[in-house]
Amino acid sequence: MDYIRNQPWFAVLFIINISWIVIEGFNVFRYYTLDAFAYDKLDNLRERRIITQLGFIRKIFILVVITLATASILMHFESARQIGTGLLTSAGIVGIIIGLAAQKSIANLLAGFQIAFTQPIRIDDVVVVEGEWGKIEEINLTYVVVRIWDQRRLVLPITYFLENSFQNWTRTTADIWGTVFLYVDHTIPVTPLKGYLKTLLDSTPLWDGKVQVLQVTDIREQTVELRCLMSAVDSPTAFDLRCFVREKMLEYIQTNYPQCLPKTRLLLEAETNPEKGPFAQP
Questions:
Q1: pLDDT(201) > 90
Q2: pTM of the predicted model, to two decimals?
Q3: Residue 109 domain-assigned?
Q4: Environment class of residue 96 by beta-carbon count within 10 Å: exposed (0-12), middle (13-18) or buried (19+)?
Q5: Domain containing 156: what range?
Q6: SS (H, E, C) 217-238
């Protein structure tokens, strides 16, 4: 130990080496956990919860190790200790200034702790934020990255998810219901459409077999609104299922009931002149 005190640069290398070993040891534990709790399966709520917490703890752990290592390195240099002693007299003022300047970052950091353990969002959650549909890709110390369906990335401050309303489609389960609305003429027969919807859903693996309903949900002046309701295992599958049902139902109506497609009715009444006939000019 006396040799280390007399050789500060050796002490610096020793501290760096120990810090690297500690961080990599935590990374080994993290990789082991990721293998044990892989979330590439349908029912992955528990796995996503653990991975979200572990990812945030890892970032905090690395930050603490680097901070302690830096402080330990500085303590091995006499000049650094003298500077630190001189700064103690103004530490109160400096602390106030730093606190005011970094209050936004501190708020984000505390919000990160709250999100990691209360978990309004988790890694791989399906959310709708700012009018965009996407999945939570990263939860960092101060911001969250949302991978939008068209591969764009929406970057939001982490406090956004505590201060604003948003939709989380996988908060408790990935199961979701999808809807398809059809607008047809009042003369459409509803019963055959119900039977055809059941046939469609039975023919595709996109449907999970839980919910299938066709109902008349509105009657308007020119059209009748039909709602097809079906369930799927997750939101991407539900989107594909909705597109499939929409296309097939349209084809079915075009082929079997073309007269029931939406139309505008116009009744023309001619003014009858008994002397000149119904179409005579006045």
A1: yes
A2: 0.59
A3: no
A4: exposed
A5: 126-168
A6: EEECCCCEEEEEEEEECCHHHH
